[in-house]
Backbone:
């Protein structure tokens, strides 16, 4: 009987912190195989359009290996669902696997991450139609910036030895160094990244046609990742409407959020002193 294939790496978030770029940088490595969809949402607490075909709620945890059946004997098998960081169902589900995977978290200064998420949801997905102040009235929006609240739960479930915590600002400043270090940790050839082009993916870009964008999302899993990478610039030229800019008022509101996260940021830096440099968030 063929044994089930599980991922040995999961990129667990957070949203708008560079997880799409990281997904493509990892998937490009010849010793790495990814899930066909970047975000499987398999362990989400609800059924959504991303996981309707395969999720823990309807299909049970035993269905998870089916997302990686095509990955064969790759040294690294992974997925990247950015919202996992916030899901108890994710840390409990991944902790229950026969072997706990390494889970990587990429974290961005919380106020800037919140602004980026707002612009993304307003101009890319269309899920937000109100003001930034209205957006902040949703209690989970600010909660999602207090990363340590969630990482403490992940540590309790998986153990610190099965977690990697990265700082978005540090990685984007020197992605080559970050990826070579990760390659060593994963036991794959770090030399692959010596000449690699670290293009940024999934930047917040306004979309002209939401209908065309929804069609693209439905077709995405049918298109090989290498082809997606080639088609993305053409797609954005066709259906993109430029990067939305934060006006002076939005910038001021974002700056005003920073003190709200000061205490939890300090706790995060104290827990991960080699990984979080608060100087990059001031």
Residues:
């Amino acid at each position: 009987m063929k044994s089930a294939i599980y991922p040995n790496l999961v990129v667990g978030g957070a949203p708008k912190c560079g997880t799409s770029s990281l997904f493509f940088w990892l998937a490009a490595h010849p010793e790495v195989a990814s899930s066909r969809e970047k975000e499987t949402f398999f362990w989400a607490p609800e059924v959504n359009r991303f996981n309707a075909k395969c999720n823990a709620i309807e299909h049970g945890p035993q269905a998870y290996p089916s997302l990686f059946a095509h990955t064969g004997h790759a040294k690294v098998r992974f997925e990247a669902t950015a919202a996992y960081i916030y899901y108890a169902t994710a840390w409990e589900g991944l902790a229950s696997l026969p072997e706990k995977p390494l889970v990587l978290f990429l974290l961005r200064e919380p106020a800037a991450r919140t602004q980026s998420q707002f612009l993304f949801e307003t101009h890319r997905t269309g899920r937000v139609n109100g003001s930034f102040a209205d957006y902040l009235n949703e209690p989970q929006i600010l909660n999602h910036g207090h990363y340590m609240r969630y990482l403490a739960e992940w540590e309790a479930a998986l153990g610190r030895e099965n977690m990697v915590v990265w700082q978005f600002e540090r990685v984007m400043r020197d992605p080559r160094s970050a990826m070579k270090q990760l390659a060593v940790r994963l036991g794959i050839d770090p030399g692959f990244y010596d000449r690699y082009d670290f293009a940024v993916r999934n930047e917040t870009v306004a979309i002209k046609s939401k209908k065309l964008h929804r069609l693209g999302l439905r077709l995405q899993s049918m298109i090989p990742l290498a082809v997606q990478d080639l088609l993305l610039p053409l797609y954005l030229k066709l259906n993109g409407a430029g990067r939305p800019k934060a006006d002076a008022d939005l910038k001021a509101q974002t700056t005003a959020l920073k003190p709200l996260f000061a205490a939890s940021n300090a706790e995060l830096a104290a827990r991960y002193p080699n990984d979080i440099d608060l100087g990059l968030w001031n």
The chain is about 45% helix and 10% strand. The mean pLDDT is 89. The CA atoms of residues 111 and 254 lie 6 Å apart. The domain at 9-206+242-272 is CATH 3.40.50.300 (Rossmann fold).
